[in-house]
Amino acid sequence: MTKGLRKGLTSYGDAGFSLFHRKAFIKALGYSDDALDRPIVGVTNTYSDYNPCHGNVPDLIESVKRGVLLAGCLPMVFPTISIHESFAHPTSMFLRNLMAMDTEEMIRAQAMDAVVVIGGCDKTLPAQVMAAASVDLPVVVLQTGPMTVGNHRGEVLGACTDCRRLWAQYRAGMIDEAEIDLISSRLVPTVGTCGVMGTASTMACLVEALGLAVPMSATAPATHADRRRIAETSGKRAAEMAICGSPRPSDLITEASVRNAMTVLQAIGGSTNGLIHLTAMAGRAGVKLDIDAFDRLGREIPVLLNLKPSGTHYMEHFHSAGGLPALMRELNSFLDLDALSVSGGTIGDAIAKAESAQEQDVIRSLAAPLKKVGAIAVLRGNLAPNTAVIKQSAASPDLMRHTGRAVVFESVEETTLRIDSPDLDVNADDVLVLRNAGPKGAPGMPEAGYLPIPMKLARQGVKDMVRISDARMSGTAFGTIVLHITPEAAVGGPLAVVQTGDRIMLDVEARRIELLIDDAEMQSRLAAWKDLPPQREKATRGYAKLFEDCVLQADRGCDFNFLLRELDSRTDS
Ligand code: FES
What we know:
Layout lengths: L14 H12 L6 H4 L3 E6 L11 H14 L3 E6 L12 H18 L4 E6 L4 H12 L3 E5 L6 E3 L2 E3 L3 H11 L5 H8 L14 H11 L15 H20 L4 H4 L2 H13 L4 H13 L6 H10 L14 H6 L2 H8 L16 H6 L23 E6 L2 E8 L9 E9 L2 H7 L12 E4 L20 H4 L7 E4 L11 E6 L16 E5 L4 E4 L3 H12 L11 H9 L23
The structure holds FE2/S2 (inorganic) cluster.
């Protein structure tokens, strides 16, 4: 099999010349023939001045290179897109597929026998796994790791659950301008990903559970020496995989490993975004995520991890308590222990080596879980004919069964304009409805599902309300919030025809979300909706047009329709 520099030669019509030409140029960087004869491990460089969650990437690259060299291969670093949550307009989800396409094409285009993809901020790990699974080249995923905690007036803080909590206090008038400014300097004390069980931590755990990353890699803090050792190990393993050609993503992302990942997602109190990304990553490997099986797991698997926003601790405490292998040991009886890992053995082997921490309250046992049920419930009903989801582990128990009057917002922009108006007709037991915020509607399905509590209610002390939308929500948020309503309003889903004053019923135990109107009224409203002009101007060019034309709904992972595995006719050269 062709390896190293000889792979994927540029087309000049003369293979010998193509190799000669390639060698001539690369030697300008001082490589010897010995170095250039080795198998190559590509390493993605996702460092960006816009991305503090990836602020340690240069250090990690050095450690990965050391591991690759120790195992006798040649590391080659190459840049790709980098996405940070707060520097991505209109929303990072809009760019995830672009990053996946960029990474896939650069892995395909450049000579490499294995690749280490380094990412962390929410969309970067799924984008990179989608890319690597599409190419099916041996890959080791290296997470940048979580930030460590901050402190403010004796209280431990971590982005971004505490960002939202403290901002809500500021909106309610409990914190003044000077204090919120001070807090902004203390919430994110180091580089690395958000220190709670938000989307980044969820994805870090899911890639380790899938066997795509080495044990303990999900939790080691970004700034700890452990993180660099994990990077070295990742480089070494990638080099060994480059030499032997396996395991490939298709060996690792299987029905068994996806089920393991779904189990972990429920037990860690994971982000609802994790479900979208897991669907997309599995889809690129040809594995269909069974959403009903996921919901059933949620009834069997309790939340074991005591991390914010479902619990009280932070990612660095999870690491000290034994990390994901220790948590998976508790879930032993629900897992397929024969699923493979890039570490060279099975998931069962990784669990067998899990450390046991004494006197810890971070990883609970099945006998004494944090929550009796799993993180996420899947809802259906006449408002969500396909599906919707709710993060029940971070919701208010007294709102899990609730009927209230709808207060409708047509778009994210309208929400911003009206939500704090003193004239807004809203009560604490109403249901806030946001639409046109789905994959095509916004576009890009922003994290706008966490509708703020209207100012006048916040000032009365209201902390939670039922909120429903076709949008997403940050995994760091808390609230009784129904998300990912599918089909979305912008493609004519029933959410499009809810009217202010309608009554909406949420029953999480029964897995129902219903608009309380009869079928005839629903059909008549849907027929009238079809004749309405579009809500906004459509994109006419560039990536925005590609996105709007091709993005699939949330229940299909928001991937592009032309990137599905079954359509792929290319093979690795
Ligand atoms: Fe990057 Fe939270 S903003 S992980």
